[in-house]
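We emphasize that the prediction below concerns an isolated chain of 297 residues; any contacts that depend on oligomerization or on bound cofactors are therefore not represented. The input was used exactly as deposited, without trimming of termini.
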Amino acid sequence: MGADILLPAHPPVSESPNAAAVRPGPPAIRADRLEVRYRNRLVWKDATFDIQPGEFVAVIGPNGAGKTTLFRMLLGLHWPSSGGLSVLGAPPHRGNYRIGYVPQRHTLDQETHIACDKLVRLAYPGARWGPGKRWRPLQWGPRLDWRAEREAAEQALEAVGASELSDRSLGALSGGELQRIFLAEALVGNPDMLLLDEPLSNLDLRRSRELVETIHGLVRSRGVTTLLVAHDINPMIQCLNKVIYIANGRVAVGSPADVLTSERLSELYGFHVEVLHDSRGNIVIVGGEDDRGEEGG
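Result of the prediction step, given as a token string:
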């Protein structure tokens, strides 16, 4: 059996040609010998890694490996059973306005008639019923606060290429359009970190690549540290600084070229795994738990 911590001897240099430039400063995320349990079941252990400010990171692995659990810890919703974790220089805590979050599932249907800009405005820090649950201080005055909300929502929608959807009803949007609105919702508070839980699910390849390009543009222009859980790493492989691969109770972290190798994944899983590359540079993982290139869930 291989070692539980699968890390290179030195911090890897991004080998993806279009990867975002990493900003100087203390790590945006620091994990030190992190162990995670859920209902007394070990999820993964001995994870030690740093994510630097401004990095674009894919979180991948088979179903049930603990990818969403990682996000819950970063959001202060689940505590590690042992080890240390810091997020943006402090212990994780609930309602962190410096983190924008797009959850895996939204309860929306065709009868949802709220306009897109209204949803985005509700997520603005300080909004009465926004995700941060922070009441507007009365001394600010409603006129000034509403103006700030409106302008922030307009800027967020523009940043994700969805200005034309501002007045549309959520229930009338396609899957790709909805994901842009949810991304704008996460972006409206101008966060330092984005956590995106499977935003590419149920999108075809073209729309997946378009959404990745939008996210990558935000990473590069705003320097926002971004972690994205995905089933298929191929739409974003050329944009990534790092990969967090979770499987078999272990965590491997490094550049895509460092982590996505037959040797590294075989050590991670504890049995032989083959990593193949097609003529277009796409990756296929053979022998993992799913026997698919897009390990996921």
